[in-house]
Please model this.
Amino acid sequence: MGLLNQRKRVDLGDGEWVEVRPLSIGALRAMRQKAAAIVVPEGEEKEEAQGFELSKLALQACIVAWSDEAPVTPENIDQLPYTLMFKITAAVGLGEPEAPLPTGPTSTES
Model:
């Protein structure tokens, strides 16, 4: 297996897995530019919308196989559970393996 054909299997638990290829420098740059240009939905923060777009594009670019019977397509990748996004994007070098804690004002209720 050559440097440009590397693949990694990511264990998702319960016997489920995805196989990913690393993102290239050029692909990552193009994805960041595309994410930066998205129209931010009303009520959503710009950074959050761009982060989700970058994650979606990265998953679509790097997932090459999985344990599911459904084919690997952009539409099926978009149906992956939210929590898996973090584990998979972390495996290809983007972000943390778990969902971040929510931000916002802290509750003063006890």
Observations:
- The chain has a mean pLDDT of 85.
